[in-house]
Amino acid sequence: MLGINTQALFGQLLLGLINGSFYALLSLGLAVIFGMLNIINFAHGALFMMGAFCAYFLLTWFDLNYWWALVLAPLIIGGFGIVLQHTLLRRIAGLDHLYSLLLTFGLALIIQGVFLNYYGSSGLPYAIPAALQGGTNLGFMFLPNYRAWVVVVSLAVCLATWFLIERTRFGSYLRAATENPQLVSAFGINVPLMITLTYGLGVGLAALAGVLAAPINQVRPLMGADFIIVVFAVVVIGGMGSILGSIVTGFALGIIEGLTKYFYPEASNTVVFLLMVLVLLVKPTGLTGKAT
Amino acid sequence: MTSTAGHPDAGLQRRTISDEIAVFIVMAIALVIVPLTGLYPYFVMQALCFALFACAFNLFLGYSGLLSFGHAMFLGTAGYICAHAAKVWGFPPELAILTGTAASAVLGLLAGLVAIRRQGIYFAMITLGLAQLMYFFYLQAKFTHGEDGIQGIPQGFLFGFLDLSKSTTLYYVVVAVFLLAFLLIWRIINSPFGEVLKSIRENEQRAISLGYKVDRYKLMAFVLSATLAGLAGALKVIVAQNASLTDVHWSMSGEVVLMVLLGGLGTVYGPVVGAFLVIAMQQYLAGAGQWVVVIQGVIFVVCVLTFRRGIVGEIAHLFKRSL
Question: What is the ipTM of this complex?
Fold first, then answer.
């Protein structure tokens, strides 16, 4: 059919959709954290990796399977994030952006370095849970069940986060505190607590993405290091002003990357960065962003 | 952006030009007598290349307040082009270095035109993305030999008569280039152009209202910084005789930030001190594997939390001098 191998094309599209799920989850977390704390969390990739390792530890040390990890890892790593925020990040609130970026970059180096020392740079296998093994033949392509699961879960979690922030009372406090923290705390709302919880939420999303990625990408200390740079480009393209914007941009760029892998594989690593340049030239504030 | 970047008490410090000159003379004398002290000259040459890289980086961050997280692309680009020119095209060293540096200047102009469009935190993410773009380009390009890098680069004769394969000659050439470039940066900082940059860092709105074309100044500073970072990269390749992907990797962009932060952001001598310390640490801990990265991370955290002026910045603050 026009020289297009549909099987391969849909395969790459699916792979793109999977990566897009991770981009969406990670850039969503970055956007939520940026909105509330006004920092860019460079440690996001390292925390994503910790989510995957957490799933691995739960399985090998405590015999707790994937389903447990899906719930526990975001809570544990989110809790770790809360500790980081409370002990370190809190101290530089109000300083220039520069310092939060450097502090979280330092944290990322520490976390990745420690894991590299104990686990090397090669990957640890993490099996796909029994219930999600195998696949479904859709006629035009073979769809591995686990990959379909990842896309569905990511989409559901993204929409739930959107709902939490845009449609609930907690979310309205959060948005209000983003706009004017003094005023909101004058109404008797504990803003520092909300800041801490928000950071925990963002980190939890990264950890969840890590657990989802564990059976696909293997568990590696550097699995988040290069990933986070792409996510930064996604954030630049989408702009951090809108929750829905980061979700849509994340998925869309994943799909574009997948298509590039099929039509012009040489550019698959760079296409997101090239799009970033293009967007900056045409609309410097990002697709959904307001002027900053 | 209401910028408070740069060094924490920028503007409050009295400039003490005479102290800066005195320190320069001491530094120059120290570098000239190093070969007599038995200190390993290769280490000093390597550290000087990184010191120049850090000074170039500081020229932009310290005096414009914008953090570039992609400066490795300039170091690496000049390195690759210089290596290719010397090895494949058979250029003499001075021309190879010049070609590499010019390549970084062009890249700096292109990257700057894109990145200057956004402020603050976005600027850092954009430069990081551009550097990653270049990294993948060099990973796939034929002439860089991917993971292997360009090996065995001929050092040749500088200006036709200085034999750079002799380590003493090479050493003094590196010292001369470093000192000249350092003086150039110092001159730029103290020029009217540098003063405008500082005013933009302190209060961009006011600089705009005074009629300065702020973006043009930032772009100019970025290109200058990229060019000098390129000079460091090209020089480094002639010293080490190989060019590899390490020099364009994001971790290199992080390392130069570390050097400048540790030594003292927005100070004249901070980047030099930071570069020597970071390179020395890497040498002594070469056998410690990934712990070097962990220690670097710890230095970042400690510097940001307790030590934002950096070593030279703290000393300068203590003695109420500018260094």
Answer: 0.89
